[in-house]
Amino acid sequence: MKKSVKRFRISHKVIPNNKKSSRKILVPQLIITLLFFIIIIISIIGVFDNGSVTGKAVYNKPLTIDQLAKGVSLDAGSNVLVWTKDIKPVSIERAFSSIIDNILYVYNYDERKYWYNPNEKIVFRTNRLFYDVNPGFEYYIRLKNIDVLKFSCEDSDRGRNYNTKGIVTTGNGSIFKDACVNEKGLLSEFYCDIPSGFEVSSILYQCPNGCSDGMCVNVSSAGGEGGGGSGSLCSLVNNNIKNIVSNITAEGKKVILKEGDIIHYGDYVLVKSSNNNVHLLKLSRVKNSSSSYRDDSVVFLDILTGTLYGTVITSEGSGTVAIGGIVGIVRYYGNADNATEEYKVTLEMYPLDKVDDFTSCFASTKTKCTDSDNGLNYYVKGTAQGIFNGVPNSLFTDSCCSGDSCNSHTGEKLMETYCFGEQIRTQQYFCNCLDGACLYIGANQCSDGLDNDKDGKIDYPRDPGCLSVNDNNESDFVSSCSDSDGGINLVVKGIVNYTTAFGVRGAVDSCFGSTMVIENYCRNNQLAISYQYCPAGLICSDGACKTNRTFVP
User: Fold this and answer.
1) What is the Cα Rg of the chain in Å?
2) Are residues 177 and 158 located together in one domain of the fold?
């Protein structure tokens, strides 16, 4: 009997190619992933950036002047930034003028101090206050709404140009126009003082031939007063140049008057061009590269016109620069390890066998400057006598400014004259002005111009004891403070009761997002605020860190 043999039929089903199938799935995924990383890279390097800082609320590196001029985008709520290192300290009202009405408060990380917007209803009472923004310092800014921080100053006539009517515009939209002060030819010239923090400054200039419509009449840049005949160097140095040189030297800076003398970084030098114009140049850049002389750099800035003159480096330590139609030979000394201030530069203009020396043009008899109200005294009308625009024994009296005119009996600001060394200087001060002096707002100690509590600080907002100009007590406030949760206690919602000049106030712990507590506590008998992250596993809810687990019965 034959055994039955089971036959197995092989099925010829098509088995899918797993490699090809997975490849079809992976390709779209790879494309999506690649696009995602490209978007991230673009956002980091700013491929589509127009030069301004946007889209962030944290800036860990010092902002540049260009970034601040174009605008820095800030978010509603928390913002952290490092202020530019390129300017001197400025008041917080000036630095943040474009966003000042949107600020709740600012915290200075470096000094551990606060600034609170006086226009807000709630003011945290503390003596740890600051008023000036310092270069390179880090600040926390709390905003009510999204905003753009702009810090700039633009002058249409590019500086102290007495022959052109100029308009100065700041980042917050304020406008200052050059104007004739009186019918005797006195001009009020506005300009941007960039090293001092883009401050709008002004100077009074006596026009030799009169003033009309905010500028001097019929004054050529080559005209002017001075010793010597028409062909002498001194005949080219007008009162404008004398005044600027005098101001520079009064600030302790150096002006090189003899051609070929050594110039250091930041020094100024006078040179004559082919059309008998005088150029006042500042050595604004000097660098000797360690790699090649082709990477070296020597740059001069003409502060009278704003023109930059770059040196064409032709060999190691030497180059040429063209100024006003004349070529000059530039030589520089110092290796790559030198600090910028240690480099030495000389500038000689053709023809090389003739050396221009302006020293005798600035020889003058020493004249003492006197001020009847002893300096910046806004509440007393004073008269200053000294050198003004190179003219000794000039006499100027404090006056009120109304609009563009600073020769009014009343006005919204004061033109205060004072002495700076031998020179007469001016400063505009906003106040209710009458007959050359600011009016007292009242008998209040915080607006009377006096140091009533003898702490070296006068009136609101400089004296921490003043809450407003109407406060009649300049003495620093002695506060009391109590905390219901005993200090920095993240798991308990607390309330801090503290006293102010307005009475007892309360500050309740709250949440900043879901991971951070705004913890109010007492320090040195005053209210203090700390931002604290909740411990791992906890979230912030109703002013305290709580567990994130949900109980299921």
Assistant:
1) 33
2) yes
